[in-house]
Amino acid sequence: MEKKTLGAKGAACDPASYIDDRPGDGVFRLRRAVYGDPAVFEAELDRIFGRCWNYICHESQITAPGDYFATRIGRHPIFVIRGDDGAPRGFYDSCAHRGTRLTRRRKGNARTLTCRYHGWCFNAEGRCTLVRGGDEGYTREAMAALDTDLRPIAGLDVYKGFVFGCLDDAAGSLGDFLGDVRPFIDLIADQSPQGMEVLRGDSTYMMKANWKLQTENSTDGYHVASVHRNFATTLGYREQISGADGMAKTEASRILDLHNIGSGGYDLAGGHMINWSDRGNPRAAPLWDSRDELLKHHSEGKVRWLVERGQTVTVFPNLLLNDVASTCIRQWRPLAPDLTEIDTWCLAPIGEGAEQRRARIRKYEDFFFPSSLAVPDDVSAMEGAHDGSLAGGGWSEFALSRHTMIDGPDDAARELGVNVRTSNPGRESETPFYSFYREWLRRMERP
Ligand code: FES
Ligand SMILES: [Fe+2]
Q1: Closest-lying ligand 1 atom to the alpha carbon of residue 100
Q2: Residue nearest to atom 4 of ligand 1 (CA)
Q3: How close is the Cα of 123 to the center of ligand 1, in Å?
Q4: Does the Cβ of 101 fall within 6 Å of ligand 1?
Q5: Ligand number nearest to the C-alpha of 118
Q6: Is 132 in the pocket of ligand 1 (CB under 6 A)?
Q7: N or C: which end of the chain has fewer CB within 10 A?
Q8: CA-CA distance, 313 to 223, in Å (whole number)?
Q9: Nearest CA to ligand 1 atom 3
């Protein structure tokens, strides 16, 4: 029987019609209208963003009582604020009086949030502490009947410093949602026994393309050698004339020398996916000097992953944790079918040495910064993909290296002791995407 989902504005959309997934025939393709169709977009806001766990911020961005971080889950403005008891809490960012947003900035500190409109005040536990003029303006009975506190979001939880929230009481636990991506998040979170910290500075930029293209691009190892050759050759020349050496060099084997290093991609189920590659020159990694210290805390196999490999970890539906030349958190939010807002931060081990920190920041600027040598090229490619998806329909192919995919873990995954749904021994393979789009379909079809 034909299944249909209604977009929030009532237009019909049939999610299964966008995916041609025939494992027996080696076919996996996507109807290109999936990017630009407004009915799909409305249904995604409800069925994907409204129901699953969404990354909000890193704990290091809200360390003191009153520290808050404001963002959106789907269309809903929300914020997280740390209470006097040290616990972070999540609320809809909407005044209990007539709905004005309470946060003035992206992040800040406020022991009391005062609404700019009529002056109601709220504490970090979400309690209303002042209804201005309320003693005269309401009878005692009317005041008692008012619902003056902030509305908490349905769920807030933290995994290894990464704060997630959800709007659906039936979302299940964060641990179950993250599933088998957790040991790969650990490769980002466990780089220092003291933990990780987001460095100062926020960068936000816009892309005239659908949000799913950014999710795809995060795991797409296939574009790296074509789109980022400019990055690798420019840096190579810069390093040649500057004489940069050791950690100051950028390790670019994944771009220039992919066929001589180990690499691969995993379908982690649940919509999560990664690709990885060995570092041709691991001494260029800022973490190289921490190797002995890391071996005191982790297995040899995990330290090999931490120091000698780079990975891009994509958490469903809109979070990328990246550890290649440098370390980066990237998150993107859908604003319209063809408009996506993207945030990026540099994440670093707490207590790392000055040389490592300098190298990490310089390499972050080179590759991840909005005006870097890489991000504009990615954005241009994704905007081109979105625009081209409007050209008379058609299907996008996701079957590169389908024939080398195996069920379960490969040797590298076994070295880390992790479970994966499928492995592929090439970073350019397109099979990890099956995780994302199968989970997309499962959620879009759920009543
Ligand atoms: S809308 Fe906030 S006090 Fe009126
Ligand atoms: Fe890229």
Answers
A1: 1
A2: 118
A3: 15
A4: no
A5: 1
A6: no
A7: N
A8: 16
A9: 118
The amino acid at 249: K
CATH code that applies to domain 180-445: 3.90.380.10
Is residue 3 very low, low, confident or very high in pLDDT (cuts 50, 70, 90)? low
| Contact between residue 359 and residue 286 where contact means Cβ atoms under 8 Å apart | yes
| Whole-angstrom Cα Rg for the chain | 23
246 Rama class: left (phi>0) / alpha (psi -120 to 50) / beta: left
Determine whether the shortest distance from the Cβ of 122 to ligand 1 is under 6 A: no
* DSSP H or E run through 267: strand 263-267
Every domain of the chain and the residues it spans: 54-158, 180-445
Q: Which residues surround ligand 2, an ion (CB under 5 A)?
A: 378
Please report which ligand is nearest the Cα atom of 121.
1
**How many percent of the chain have pLDDT more than 90?**
83
What phi and psi, each to the nearest 5 degrees, are found at residue 335?
-105, -30
Distance from the alpha carbon of residue 130 to the mean position of ligand 1, in angstroms: 11
Alpha-carbon distance 226 to 375, whole Å?
Answer: 14
Q: Does domain 54-158 have CATH number 3.40.50.410?
A: no
**Which of 91, 92, 95 for mutating ligand 1's site (highest number of atoms within 8 Å of CB)?**
95
Structure token pair of residue 128:
């209303």
Q: Are strands 162-166 and 5-6 parallel, antiparallel or unpaired?
A: unpaired
For residue 238, the model assigns a pLDDT of 85
Number of H helices, E strands in the chain: 16, 25
CB 247 within 8 A of CB 284: yes
pLDDT score of 154 more than 80: yes
